Automatic annotation (TrEMBL):
The lineage of its organism: Eukaryota, Fungi, Dikarya, Ascomycota, Saccharomycotina. It comes from the Eukaryota. It comes from Wickerhamomyces ciferrii (strain ATCC 14091 / BCRC 22168 / CBS 111 / JCM 3599 / NBRC 0793 / NRRL Y-1031 F-60-10). GO terms for molecular function: argininosuccinate lyase activity. Keywords: Lyase. InterPro entries: Arg_succ_lyase_C, Argininosuccinate_lyase, Fumarase/histidase_N, Fumarate_lyase_CS, Fumarate_lyase_fam, Fumarate_lyase_N, L-Aspartase-like. One of its GO terms (biological process) is L-arginine biosynthetic process via ornithine. Residues 371-439 form the Argininosuccinate lyase C-terminal domain. Pathway: Amino-acid biosynthesis; L-arginine biosynthesis; L-arginine from L-ornithine and carbamoyl phosphate: step 3/3. SUPFAM superfamilies: L-aspartase-like (SSF48557). This is argininosuccinate lyase. Residues 13-308 form the Fumarate lyase N-terminal domain.
Amino acid sequence: MSDKPAELKLWGGRFTGATDPLMNLYNASLPYDQKMYAADLEGTKVYTQGLQKLGLITEHELSEIHRGLEQIGKEWASGEFVEKDGDEDIHTANERRLGEIIGRGISGKVHTGRSRNDQVATDMRIFVRDELTKILNFLKELILTIIKRADTEMDVLMPGYTHLQRAQPIRWSHWLSMYATYFTEDYKRLEQIIERLNVSPLGAGALAGHPYGIDREFLAENLGFNGVIGNSLAAVSDRDFVVETMFWSSLFMNHVSRFSEDLIIYSTAEFGFIKLADAYSTGSSLMPQKKNPDSLELLRGKSGRVFGSLAGFLMSIKSIPSTYNKDMQEDKEPLFDCLTTVEHSVLISTGVISTLSINKEAMEGALTMDMLATDLADYLVRKGVPFRETHHISGECVKTAEDEKLSGIDQLTLEQFKKIDSRFEDDVKDTFSFEVSVERRTATGGTARSAVKKQLESLKSQITK
Ligand code: ARG
């Protein structure tokens, strides 16, 4: 960017000196905000309709403007748009080009009553709304993929963990359904965020409002907004929607990261529960035997940059005075990075989960009889013994089996059981089945087949209403 004389810049009237060339670079947002070119053109298209309704531009001028905007859109889409010195951001670039196409006599009217302050806020909301809607649909696909897998592999049991220690047997589908539950909450939260951000700042002017009484409701409706922001100062200064998007992304990536961590653990040779498809793993440059879960490690690792964008942007805006300040231009790079990272992460997660293979034998082979110690306690509860007592008795059974060097509590003889507590009877042996244990948990949310099926149905209906 050159140190072009100030009078050639769109805001150049009162400036006499040239700008420091580095300042031009430092100030410019075009390298990244050109992503919003379509939103910017759409905003101008509707805004000029509003001006025409006010009689500030003629029908003919309006059609010339729309012709020019359409051409600019084509130039951006095909990569033919030529950036020029003085194109500070997408708003100035588009307006400069419009002047070249239809003449400055007409293009000079499009900014009447508008400021880049309400313009950029409008463009951002359109852009973020459309990106988040795309992400919402990809997220739905991810959830449906998990649900489908859970339905198909309902028979498979595995250990459920707390503290990463074997705890109780669960269905693999129950584990899948847990993440489908997290992601469904993310889905609903995202729907609310899209709804909340979809309000129009356009027509707020620089800060104080519109001097010609533009019909802001008309502008909002024609840009697909649900309404207008009711205070012009708030309209130009509010970046809560950026913060909310980054917060949503952070929470979602936190879920993705935990999901990935589980799968990384399950993919180790020590566990051997799952195997990633080749499409989502890579080899080692040195060790020929290795297959690394890079996709999952990247999903886990990229969560960090998303959390960073949230923290960083909150720092950028925490003490700026009202209303617009240039600090706010710092919303774009972290926001765009966040949206791209999340979008790709949703797609990669879907790819990973739909292509990995499971090893049923390894999963079920990892179940051990001690994981039924609670079921043994419950056995005596059913015979009327208070749980606090049965918990203790079951613990004694575990200890005896260990002392006797048996492979599990199921190997104790009825005599040994009776010696620990006389209320044990022959039917105690029916307790030692993982399937029976799992199928007892029929209460809502549990791991029994019927309960998991209900969870899956409910999740599906929540995202496909
Ligand atoms: N590129 C600027 C931004 O992204 C546009 C708004 C400029 N407004 C101003 N008063 N300088 O924030």
